[in-house]
Write a structure and sequence with these properties.
The complex is a heterodimer of chains A (222) and B (257). Chain A has nine helices and no strands. With 222 residues, chain A is an all-alpha fold. In chain A, helix 7 runs antiparallel to helix 9. Chain A starts with 7 loop residues before the first helix and ends in a 6-residue tail after the last helix. With 257 residues, chain B is α/β, with parallel strands linked by helices. In chain B, helix 4 packs across helix 5, helix 4 packs parallel to helix 6 and helix 6 packs parallel to helix 7. Chain B is globular and about 50 Å long. Classes of the chains: A mainly alpha (222), B alpha/beta (257).
């Protein structure tokens, strides 16, 4: 082996790589926010009394969970303009991540909602609260608490999946790295460095979720 | 439903009137021809073997259970299938459950303030004042900032009673309130219920606590197989039961204690 390590392009590109990290956080956090909204909304529709809504959510979950994310993001990026909807790479990536994460979130959150005892719901109804209030005020928080570890690992996965968005040149760490690599051919140095960056990003995300858990879900249970 | 029944049950001091109420689960008849009138301030104890329909009966009163036939009136409101009458009735009827069903993610105080604020649209200050007053009445005010999991079963059930009372209900329904409690905690909950009864609250209690029935009930009702078999004031009920089925039941549960 007479490969000489040369980190100069990486060091020169460090500001760009750090901006790329920021892009990755932006994609991940926006994608998660959308995924949570789709997840909770999906659970409400999934168990609603309106049968077509239930079927629609079921079909959506099956479609998303059984197709590759890369294909989904290409579809949104290249197919939607044919329907007259033209979006920049970064918004496209956020939507794709949100939709993909949302489909998984629906199944996860639904498990949490089903773990809540019927007695909790009846107590809320008996106190004169409406069904929607019972869901929002009584069921949701304990349900999210129950599945928060699963949701955390799903969202760390979503964070790492942002790298797939480089395929449509969304602004994030992997696409920045690809550009530096194609200019310098220092593949090992560039991808070795961003591997460590991704490790750090995942760790930050896990800390972030641990803080949310400590802040909102730390009430005692038996 | 049929006119004569609804007229006969609508007198001024009637709190609850059930007329010809029937309920099936498929082929199984859970309630058959239930006729029950409860006056304002009256204390009713409902007893009977498990599966006899006692819980189902009181759960029909606040529409946690539906029924296929008959009519239920609470106060002046005829309970229908529409959200409006169901809401109106639920705001006037408090319920205490066997397993307390406190909300685990809220403090004791928040448990008591939730429904008054969200259902009655009271302000926070007013809801909190009421909650503190009622927590004081069930002698648990010092636990107001704790979470349900930090309380004993008896304490949780007293909080559940206070939570129901915060809605200022006209009727309280108790669904086996002491059945899930350790024996040493039964008394504190019964004492709370007795105090409530003495203040004139209209109450229907599903319970096997026959000491409680003797002490506070105006009427004891015995159910079997979804029907009311016998009803009488406690004195007559315990000493002079008319039906063989009642005698057998009393023999079984009084023996046990």
């Amino acid at each position: 082996m007479n490969y000489k390590l040369d980190f100069t392009p990486v060091i020169d590109g460090l500001p760009d790589l750090l901006w790329g990290c920021l892009g990755t956080f932006l994609l991940a956090l926006s994608g998660m926010a959308l995924a949570i909204v789709i997840g909770i909304g999906g659970v409400i529709l999934r168990d609603s009394r309106f049968a077509p809504a239930r079927w629609l959510v079921k079909a959506f979950v099956e479609l998303i969970r059984n197709t590759p994310f890369l294909v989904q993001i290409f579809f949104i990026y290249f197919a939607l303009p044919l329907a007259g909807l033209r979006l920049d790479p970064t918004p496209t990536a956020i939507i794709a991540l949100g939709i993909n994460g949302g489909a998984y979130a629906i199944e996860i959150i639904r498990g949490g909602v089903q773990s809540i005892g019927k007695g909790q719901i009846e107590a809320g109804l008996a106190l004169g609260l409406h069904k929607a209030q019972v869901f929002r005020l009584i069921v949701l928080k304990p349900a999210l608490r129950a599945i928060f570890p699963s949701l955390t690992s799903q969202f760390v996965l979503l964070t790492l999946t942002t790298s797939v968005a480089s395929a449509i040149s969304a602004y994030e760490l992997t696409s920045v790295a690809q550009r530096i690599e194609s200019d310098s051919f220092r593949s090992f140095e560039v991808y070795g460095t961003i591997t460590l960056f991704y490790l750090a990003i995942s760790w930050v995300m896990m800390r972030f979720f641990a803080l949310i858990s400590a802040r909102y879900f730390s009430y005692p249970v038996k | 439903m049929n006119q004569p029944a609804s007229q006969s049950i609508a007198s001024a001091d009637t709190m609850i009137a059930m007329a010809h109420v029937e309920k099936w689960y498929g082929d199984f008849q859970a309630l058959s021809d239930i006729n029950l009138t409860v006056r304002k301030g009256e204390r009713i104890v409902l007893c009977g073997p498990s599966g006899s329909g006692k819980s189902t009966l009181i759960r029909c009163i606040n529409h946690l259970e539906t029924y296929q036939k008959g009519e239920i009136r609470v106060g002046g409101t005829r309970l229908g299938d529409d959200a409006r009458t169901i809401d109106a009735v639920r705001r006037e009827v408090g319920m205490v459950f066997q397993h307390f069903n406190l909300f685990p993610h809220m403090t004791v105080l928040q448990n008591c303030m939730l429904a008054p604020m969200r259902s009655l649209r009271l302000g926070k200050a007013e809801a909190e004042a009421t909650a503190r007053q009622l927590l004081g009445r069930v002698k648990i005010l010092e636990q107001a900032e704790k979470y349900p999991a930090q309380l004993s079963g008896g304490q949780q059930q007293r909080v559940a009673i206070a939570r129901a009372l915060c809605m200022k209900p006209k009727v309280m329904l108790f669904d086996e309130p002491t059945s899930a409690l350790d024996p040493e905690m039964v008394k504190e909950v019964l004492d709370t219920m007795i105090a409530l009864a003495e203040e004139g609250m209209t109450m229907i209690c599903v319970t096997h606590e026959m000491g409680f029935a003797r002490q506070v009930a105006d009427r004891v009702i015995f159910m079997a197989n979804g029907a009311i078999v016998e009803e009488a004031p406690p004195e007559a009920f315990f000493h002079n039961p008319r039906h063989e089925r009642t005698r057998k039941f009393l023999g079984e549960i009084l023996h046990k204690h």
